[in-house]
Specification:
Shape of chain A: globular
Oligomer: homodimer
Strand order of the largest sheet of chain A: 1-8-3-6
Largest sheet of chain A: 4 strands, antiparallel
Mean pLDDT of chain A: 91
Number of helices of chain A: 8
Radius of gyration of chain A: 18 Å
Largest interface: A-B, 42 and 42 residues
Order of helices and strands of chain A: HHEEEEEEEEHHHEHHEEH
Chain lengths: 243, 243
DNA sequence: CGACGCTTTGACACAACTCAACAACCGTGG
DNA sequence: CCACGGTTGTTGAGTTGTGTCAAAGCGTCG
């Protein structure tokens, strides 16, 4: 657990300097998070809802179930990320969300977000920035699955995950916790679990990256980047307060 | 060319009933569209910008270029759709946009959008709805490429395109103009152009769909849906004015 | 007329999938 | 304490969907 403002404040702070008032507002909507057991489906594909969540602790994934029983994982939100914000504007949710570990989430009414946009425009743009970043990640994901080989895709996935975790202080340059199994990884990468296993072995053998015991160790960041053309995100704050 | 309000008004109207004032506002930002020649890159990957566009006429695509020279097409905006709205919030654009035919676009400052959010909240939520829908389409696209076979993916793509075009009155249940070539299609579907050709042949042979002479004809909608599990979007307006 | 963009086809290669089996690890209960 | 099933990881063998390479057909346009 980071400084009082939580992971969300930490993440948004890389984008815009927040006033004390805005920080209070953030704390307020993140009060009394609820506990959620591992494997619980917080939101279901096809349901309609008026609430969204901020993930406070633990891991989960948003996903889409297809007709033939297969599943595509869309994203792995990490602490500080919003869950289900998009769904509330569409009539029905186009995807589900399930926890992967025990987790804590803050629930909020979407109406609350609209109020915030009104009251704290800077905070509003910071949130818009965050959702834009999430979208950009989805788009990159799309490009990965559409055009990269299995090993490039996997390397890229872990680099991106590493960067996001570092942004909220949940990992170092070279190492982070990652309680995903190879089945979930497969559904995220658009591969079969068996092939994921082979790819992970190869990454290990060429001494680029190790994924073992719910833990990722990056042995050769440069090598991974060369493999897949990963581009680091520029994270310096770009919006300064006017006054 | 539809009624005076343009394609954007028509699209948003399926979501929320617009006041005369709001309609005027929409017309205003779409005044004096610029002409863009086919094959022109309106925005470039990696550039930073403060303007976005509304496509008025013609076809284009947003895409991502990868390190190895391959390309992934993210979306085919059609008239009434926004282009580059997300990019302006991130420091640099994560994708490019190029026209595919001669086109007309309205350029607008992002600041203008923020003003609209202020002045016409209903219009603001309609725009948010539209961007949420675009996101949902991207997510569906991701699932398609990750988990569907080439033929399912292709069928799904054309069904979705058909629905969007109908929404702005640019196609019927069974037929629409589609000036895409098989190379661009390939980059959108995450396939090789040659395989796209094979898939199109098969769709034609089993009498589901014909793609020829820049024109798509849907022979058997039901059959296509059965093939790929396409879900129609519920389009009844869900936001009614309060007063 | 030739050049060019796009489509079509065939032969072959290969990345990733499927099926099948086994190993390692866990918590549980007898 | 060990036996047990359940979950996850690992490996091999064979299959298949899709990519690559090569070439030809066909409009259109200068």
């Amino acid at each position: 657990m980071p400084e009082t403002g939580g992971f969300l404040e930490r993440k948004l702070s890389t984008f815009v300097r927040l006033s004390e008032q805005e920080k209070r507002c953030l704390s307020e909507i993140q009060q009394s998070p609820m506990l959620v057991k591992s494997g619980h489906e917080l939101t279901r594909q096809g349901e309609s809802t008026h609430v969204a969540y901020i993930l406070q602790q633990g891991w989960g994934c948003s996903f889409k179930d297809l007709q033939d029983g297969s599943r595509q994982v869309i994203a792995f939100p990490i602490p500080g990320d919003c869950v289900g914000l998009r769904s509330v504007l569409l009539r029905t949710s186009d995807h589900g969300f399930t926890t992967i570990t025990d987790a804590q989430v803050s629930r909020f009414e979407v109406a609350r977000i609209l109020e915030i946009f009104d009251q704290f425009p800077h905070l509003g743009s910071a949130i818009l920035w965050a959702t834009s970043r999430d979208e950009a990640i989805t788009v990159e994901h799309l490009a990965s699955i559409g055009r990269r080989t299995a090993i490039e895709r996997t390397a890229h996935f872990f680099l991106e995950l590493s960067d996001r975790l570092q942004l909220v202080g949940l990992g170092s340059e070279t190492e982070f916790e990652c309680p995903l199994n190879q089945y979930i990884l497969a559904d995220a990468l658009g591969l079969s679990a068996i092939h994921v296993n082979r790819v992970l072995r190869e990454l290990r053998e060429v001494k680029l990256l190790t994924f073992q015991d719910r833990r990722v160790v990056i042995h050769d960041r440069r090598g991974l980047i060369d493999l897949d053309g990963y581009e680091e995100v520029d994270q310096t704050p770009i919006l300064e307060r006017k006054s």
